[in-house]
C-alpha cells in the first residue's frame, strides 16, 4: 500500500518594528502578507495552539535513605533544552515518612505542539533539619538524591490515560547503568485545564479607517494582545490582512479564556496597516476585556479607536473617527486537540524529497544534497526531515513512515515523480526518523537526478493512503512533508490534486530549500483566504497547505519549521469539526 511509480515594538516614525529588526519584504521569504504577520507575531510571543497542562505526581518504592524512618520526598521539575541545559520550573511540597508519596501540589505548563518539550524530574529526600524551610529556599545539593527520570510532554498527553510511569535512575553523567537499580518509579499524570476548552468566537468590523497610504486605502489587520504585569503586551490572536479596505469586516477570531487569563483581563486591540517591509503602521487601538467586548456586541454600538501621541509626561490619547464594532460574540465549549489524541487519534508522518538535477551533484560540497562526512546535519533536506519528524513522531504509535522521492531516475526504470525512497517496488514505509535518513542517504547514490519538478504524483500517493484509512474508519490524520529546491512545473495538476485531497484527513507542509524564487508557490497556500480551484471548477473544502522557505529557518529567535507545525492542530480540528467527528465518535 502507498507505493508509487511514474513515467516520466514601535519605531520613531510610529510604525511597528519588523521582526528581528529586519525589513524583509512579504515577497522575499513569505508567501503572503498573512505569513509575514504570523512571523511578526511569533517574535512577540504569539503561539497558535494554547493549552495548559496540569501535571500531578506520585511515586512507588522509593529508596529509603533515612535510618529510623522512611524518606521525606520532594519532586523537582525542569525543562531540558536541545543543548542539555536545565531550567528549574517547579518544586512540590515535602511528603513526610513515605516510600510511596502522592504529592498534592501540581505543576502547570503550557503545551506547545510545534516543539519537543523535554522534561526532567528529580526526587530528593529532604533532611529533617530543613523540613521547616520553604521548598523554594532549600539547597538541593544539601539533600539526598533519590533518582531522576525524563520524558517529553508529548509522551504524557498522547497516552490514553495521560499517565506515564518512569523508572528512577542515577543522574546523567554518572557511571552508566547496566542493571536496573530498583530506585522506584515516578508516576506523572497530565490533565488539560478546563479553561482551555472554553472558546469565544468574535467577529470584528471597523468603519472609517484612516488611510495610511498615499494612493490607496489601508491594508488593515487586527492584533489582540493581553496586558501583562511586566513587559510588552503578548499577542493572543489576530485577523487576516484585508487589502485596500477602509471598512473591513474580518473573519471570526477565536480566543480561549485560558489564553487571556480571565474574561476581565484587559486586552489591547490594535488596528495596523500592513507594510511589506515589516514596519506595520498603527492606525489606532482600544483597550477592552472580553466582558467589555461582549457588552459592546450587545449594545450594537461601536467604540472610537485612539492613537497615542506625545511621549513621557506629555503622553495623551487622540480619539479618532474610526470605530471598532463587535458583530458577533459567542462562547462555546469545544473538543480540543488533546482530547482527540487522548481518545486514540494519531498524526501520521510522510515525507517526499526532491531529487531533481537542479540540486547539484550530491558528491560536491555546493550541492543541496551534500552529506557532511563528519555526520553533522548541515544539509537542508536533513534538517527539515529531523525538525519536523522529531515533533510528529510522538503522535504516531508504530513510527513507520511512508517516504518517497521524485524527479529522478531510479535503477532500471524511467524518470519517476514518485518512487519509494527505500528502493522497494512493493512498499514505501521505513522505520522511524533514522529510517528516513538511512533511505535518503542510500537513494542519493542509487538514483540519477533528473526533472522536472512535479508535486501531483506524491500528493496523490499520500491522498490514496489517507483515503484508504478514511474508508476503514481509522483514527488517523496524515501530514505530508514535501521538501523541494525549485518551483513546480505542474501547477494546475497540483491544484487538482490538492482540491481532491482537501476532503481527506491530510495536511501538506512544503519546505523550499536553496535560493529559488518561490513566489509562485503562494497560490498553493490559502493564507490569503482564497480557496484553490481545480481545472473542473471545484473549490477546495479547506486549506491544507502550508509553505515556507527554509532560508528563513531562523527569523529572530523563531524557527520557521516551528511556525509551520504550529498550524497543524488548527487544520486537524477544522477537518474534525467540518465532518462532525468527536473524540468519542467513529471517524
- Given as residue ranges, the uncertain stretches (5+ residues, pLDDT < 50) are 5-31, 175-179, 553-558
Helix content, binned percent: 10-25%
Helix run count = 11
Query: What profile does the largest beta sheet have?
Result: 7 strands, mixed
By CATH, the superfamily of the largest domain comes out as von Willebrand factor, type A domain
What value does the average pLDDT take? 84
**CATH fold type of the largest domain:** Rossmann fold
Q: Tell me the fraction of residues in β-strands, as a range.
A: 25-35%
Number of domains: 3
Q: Report Rg.
A: 26 Å
| Shape category | globular
In terms of structural class, how would the helical and strand content be classed? alpha+beta
**Overall CATH class of the largest domain:** Alpha Beta
Second CATH tier, the architecture of the largest domain: 3-Layer(aba) Sandwich
Number of strands: 28
The first-to-last residue Cα distance is: 21 Å
Structural features, described:
One of its GO terms (cellular component) is plasma membrane. Pfam families: C2, Copine. It is a lipid-anchor. It comes from Microthlaspi erraticum. The protein is of the alpha+beta class and 587 residues long. The protein folds into three domains: 133 residues, Immunoglobulin-like, CATH 2.60.40; 137 residues, Immunoglobulin-like (Sandwich); 236 residues, Rossmann fold (3-Layer(aba) Sandwich), CATH 3.40.50. 18% of the residues lie in helices and 31% in strands. The protein has eleven helices and 28 strands. The strands form seven sheets. Strands 18, 19, 21, 22, 24, 25 and 26 form a seven-stranded mixed sheet that branches. Strands 1-15-14-11-12 form a five-stranded antiparallel sheet. β11 and β12 form a beta hairpin. The chain is globular and about 80 Å long.
Amino acid at each position: 500500500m502507498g507505493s508509487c511509480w511514474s513515467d516520466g515594538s514601535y519605531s520613531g516614525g510610529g510604525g511597528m518594528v519588523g521582526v528581528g529588526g529586519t525589513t524583509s519584504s512579504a515577497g522575499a521569504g513569505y508567501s503572503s502578507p498573512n505569513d509575514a504577520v504570523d512571523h511578526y507575531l511569533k517574535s512577540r510571543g504569539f503561539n497558535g495552539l494554547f493549552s495548559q497542562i496540569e501535571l500531578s505526581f506520585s511515586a512507588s518504592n522509593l529508596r529509603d535513605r533515612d535510618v529510623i524512618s522512611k524518606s521525606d520526598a520532594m519532586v523537582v521539575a525542569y525543562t531540558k533544552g536541545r543543548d542539555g541545559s536545565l531550567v528549574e520550573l517547579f518544586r512540590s511540597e515535602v511528603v513526610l515518612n513515605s516510600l510511596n508519596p502522592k504529592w498534592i501540589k501540581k505543576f502547570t505548563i503550557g503545551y506547545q505542539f510545534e516543539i519537543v518539550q523535554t522534561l526532567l524530574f528529580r526526587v530528593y529526600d529532604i533532611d529533617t533539619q530543613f523540613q521547616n524551610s520553604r521548598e523554594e529556599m532549600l539547597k538541593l545539593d544539601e539533600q539526598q538524591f533519590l533518582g531522576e527520570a525524563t520524558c517529553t510532554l508529548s509522551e504524557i498527553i498522547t497516552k490514553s490515560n495521560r499517565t506515564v510511569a518512569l523508572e528512577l535512575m542515577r543522574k546523567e553523567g554518572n557511571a552508566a547503568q547496566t542493571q536496573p537499580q530498583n530506585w522506584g518509579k515516578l508516576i506523572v499524570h497530565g490533565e488539560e485545564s478546563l479553561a482551555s476548552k472554553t472558546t469565544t468566537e468574535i467577529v470584528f468590523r471597523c468603519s472609517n479607517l484612516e488611510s495610511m497610504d498615499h494612493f490607496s486605502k489601508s491594508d488593515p489587520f487586527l492584533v489582540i494582545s493581553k496586558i501583562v504585569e511586566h513587559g510588552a503586551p503578548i499577542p493572543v490572536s489576530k485577523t487576516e490582512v484585508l487589502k485596500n479596505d477602509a471598512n473591513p469586516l474580518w473573519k471570526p477570531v477565536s480566543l480561549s479564556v485560558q489564553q487571556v487569563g480571565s474574561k476581565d483581563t484587559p486586552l489591547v486591540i490594535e488596528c495596523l496597516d500592513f507594510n511589506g517591509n515589516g514596519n506595520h503602521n498603527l492606525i489606532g487601538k482600544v483597550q477592552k476585556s472580553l466582558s467589555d467586548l461582549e457588552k459592546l456586541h450587545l449594545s450594537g454600538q461601536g467604540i472610537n479607536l485612539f492613537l497615542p501621541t506625545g511621549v513621557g509626561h506629555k503622553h495623551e490619547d487622540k480619539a479618532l473617527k474610526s470605530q471598532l464594532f463587535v458583530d458577533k460574540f459567542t462562547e462555546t465549549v469545544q473538543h480540543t486537540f488533546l482530547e482527540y489524541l487522548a481518545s486514540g487519534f494519531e498524526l501520521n508522518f510522510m515525507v517526499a524529497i526532491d531529487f531533481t538535477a537542479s540540486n547539484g551533484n550530491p558528491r560536491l560540497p555546493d550541492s543541496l544534497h551534500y552529506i557532511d562526512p563528519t555526520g553533522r546535519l548541515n544539509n537542508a533536506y536533513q534538517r527539515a526531515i529531523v525538525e519536523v519528524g522529531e515533533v510528529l513522531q510522538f503522535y504516531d504509535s508504530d513510527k513507520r513512515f511512508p517516504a518517497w522521492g521524485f524527479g529522478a531516475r531510479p535503477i532500471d526504470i524511467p524518470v519517476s515523480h514518485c518512487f519509494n525512497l527505500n528502493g522497494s517496488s512493493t512498499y514505501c514505509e521505513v522505520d522511524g526518523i533514522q529510517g528516513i535518513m538511512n533511505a535518503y542517504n542510500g537513494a542519493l547514490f542509487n538514483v540519477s537526478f533528473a526533472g522536472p519538478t512535479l508535486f501531483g504524483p506524491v500528493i496523490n500517493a499520500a491522498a490514496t493512503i489517507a483515503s484508504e484509512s478514511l474508508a476503514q474508519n481509522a483514527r488517523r490524520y496524515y501530514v505530508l512533508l514535501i521538501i523541494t529546491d525549485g518551483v513546480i512545473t505542474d501547477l494546475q495538476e497540483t491544484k487538482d490534486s490538492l482540491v481532491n485531497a482537501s476532503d481527506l484527513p491530510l495536511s501538506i507542509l512544503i519546505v523550499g530549500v536553496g535560493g529559488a524564487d518561490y513566489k509562485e508557490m503562494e497560490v498553493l497556500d490559502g493564507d490569503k483566504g482564497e480557496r484553490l480551484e481545480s481545472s473542473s471548477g471545484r473549490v477546495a473544502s479547506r486549506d491544507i497547505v502550508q509553505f515556507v522557505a527554509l532560508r528563513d529557518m531562523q527569523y529572530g529567535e523563531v524557527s520557521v519549521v516551528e511556525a509551520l507545525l504550529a498550524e497543524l492542530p488548527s487544520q486537524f480540528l477544522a477537518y474534525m469539526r467540518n465532518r462532525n467527528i468527536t473524540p468519542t465518535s467513529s471517524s
